Amino acid sequence: MATMSDQDLRTLVRQVIDQHLPPAPAGPPASLAQSQAGQPSHLLLVVAESDGPCIIEPAVPCNHCGYCKSLGH
After folding, report:
1. pLDDT band at 12, cuts 50/70/90?
2. Does the model's pTM come out above 0.85?
3. What are the φ/ψ torsions at residue 64 (nearest 5 degrees)?
4. Beta-strand runs (E) in 1-73
């Protein structure tokens, strides 16, 4: 039984993936803001500001990171 090196396996996986992906569009890529505009996963939730405990991890104080508003994205 022949064994494959990690590099050979990576190369094979990349080749198979390339065969199944559509060709990349010509021209400059859309900016990140344009490509994510209107995506439900990037909406912000309305959460009351608090100087108390973190909503996600109540054992620590809120540091206003915004994680709870963004569904973790």
Report:
1. very high
2. no
3. 60, 40
4. none
Task: Output the CA–CA distances (angstroms, integers) from residue 68 to 7, 28, 65, in the order listed.
Answer: 40, 34, 8
DSSP category for residue 31: P
Q: Residue 72: which of 37, 47, 38 has the closest Cα?
A: 47
Task: Judge contact between 62 and 55, C-beta under 8 A.
Answer: yes
pLDDT of 42 > 60? The answer is yes
Neighbours of 55 (CB within 10 A): 13
Structure tokens at 34: 């344009």
* Measured distance CA(36)–CA(70) in Å, rounded: 14
